[in-house]
Amino acid sequence: MKGTFSITPRIIAHFGEDLIKNESIALFELVKNAYDACATECKINFKVEGSDLVEITIEDNGFGMDKNVITDVWLVIGTDFKYQKAELKPNCCGRYPLGEKGIGRLGVHKLGNEVTLISKKETESEVEVHIDWTKLLLAENIEDFEVDIKENTSPTIFKNGSTGTKIIIKKLKTTWDRRQIREVYRNLTSLNSPFTTGNDAFSVKVISNNTNLFAGLPSFTEIFDSGLYYGHCFMKGGNIEQFTYEFKPWSSLTKIDKGRKKDISGLIEQDLIIQGDKIEVEIDSNGRIKTKKVPYDIDLDEYKIGDIEFDVVIYEMDSQIFNFVNAEKTSIKSYLKENGGIRVYRDEIRVYDYGERDNDWLGIDLKRVHRVGGNVSNNIILGSVKINRADSSGLKEKTNREGFIENESYKAFVDAVNYALSLIVRERNIDKVQLTTLYKKHRAVEPVLADLDDVIEIVKAKVTVEEDREEILNYLYRINKQYVEVKEILIKSANAGLNLGVVIHEIEKQLQALMGLVENGGSQDQIKDITFSLEKIVRGYSAMIRKSGIENNSLKEVVQTVTDNYEFRFIDHSIEVFTSYSDNNLSGFLAKAESISVLTNLLDNSIFWLSYARKENRKISIFATDQIKDYNTIIVSDNGPGFNIPHEVATQPFISGKPNNIGMGLGLHVVNEMMNAMKGKLLFLEKEDVEFPKLIIENGITQAIVALCFPLKK
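The chain above was modelled as a monomer; its predicted structure follows.
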């Protein structure tokens, strides 16, 4: 005996109501049908009687449908009609169809119980279809659910040779309030990328018989000029081919002479390679499973993503700066609250629900939580990611119309967009530091102090009772002072903490090597060598965290300790180290433990950038000299790409020049603070500022030159 599957009429209701999340997406699916029909315009009309929405009409001027298409395609659930055509070639107007699953038309079921569809194809009769969804529940079999179809001998809608489709939806299933209608308006008017100019190929218009229904809703063009930071990036294959960034200060920001621009020529070669991070799983010698993030290069063609065009505007909402904006502040805040985020457009049509408030698809807000400072949030950016349908077959839409299936191509897509955003945010951070320095009362770049400043300003403005205001302000001033004191203590601890992970990693590697030698019968000399290396690493780290006062100490001992600690790191990263300290007896007043730590931080930076730049002949120089007046100095340099952010910005807390804004952005800030605490100074030099040994010049080790200057007198 054999059985067969059967389908109840209720399945249609499930497709319409359960697979389509909300009314915005339901309408969007119908708009996509208009796009696929080669329409140049789709008009959505909300008919209101009193305060009630009673009817929704969707009308386009596409090529329409005849009776055969309606019966054989439109009324067939899950047809591959568009998919088959898309596999062969674009449709007659050169568009690749957006519909894939053949169920988008069921969005009408989500919206209302009575549906009338009127469509006309060129040279064919106008066809009219009436659907009463309430009859669906009464039908026992799918064949029992009948719809009325008729041909109009004289067109009622599409006259004088016009073509298209009109859908009239009545007896709406949802009681729409004004807020919900305006929300749908916002979503529908975002179907086309706001960054696209001069494209009249397809437009969506939303209208109503109630002219006040959409009053007061600001448009993108109205607030575009209220941004401060603008970025554009075009990615093709595995590389960035176009990059522009512009800081455009408002005319009211009179303390700033001019804006700043940067194009692709200002990026280092390695920045042009699209990069992401992926999780790798490994099993250590004890059988323990470990995961780690490793960088990887992204080839958009390999992942079948195609070219990506990315545009973004970043706004400045800090109250002390935002007050200077040349526009209505409430409208800007309201617009960003509703529309902030980065949206995706495929063939200029939006892919939902990327960029909606509850979809942080790039993890922008999450990164801001995990790492203090240097990041943006969705409510201060407006962005557009554009891809082509023909080249992005690796990105497959979910059946429920809520974005793409999260496969390997999607992961690479997210990483690529995040990488482009990180390069633009890196430039924005440079200009934000300048703004903060000029306009913030206490010039606080650190998030805590910046937030405290904002609270103080609000209290001054909002608390009207003088006695209460002064009491609250006294508490806030005390918190500010105590925070600064605590920060100074923690910075000293951070010196060692920033390097703890490196030390633990080195010890783990040496222990694994030692275990392998013991288990496999290695020679006594080999075992002794690794044991000695382990002891040296631990001893070196102990020297870094040991409490020490400021005394006249040998620079040679500081350098020797650090180079001993990093001996194996240099080998692992294939770095040749040039030192010139053994032939001098220079000393300076310094705290030995802190000095070891700050020099370690500088070497960490050099190792990272040499690896990032994929240099084949990696070289670092550690050069002790007395050429800086009143100081004896340790100068660190390398043959890497050099600094990609200004020196004055590099020493600010929570600001990083590293790709994807990785790290804490504290390294050089901690170095600068500790050098100041020792009455020394941190200098960024050009190669002409000091006379380098001939060997360093010949080997080109004159990039990212940083000097640790220790005073000759206490």
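The chain has three domains: 10-176+201-216, 222-439, 466-711.
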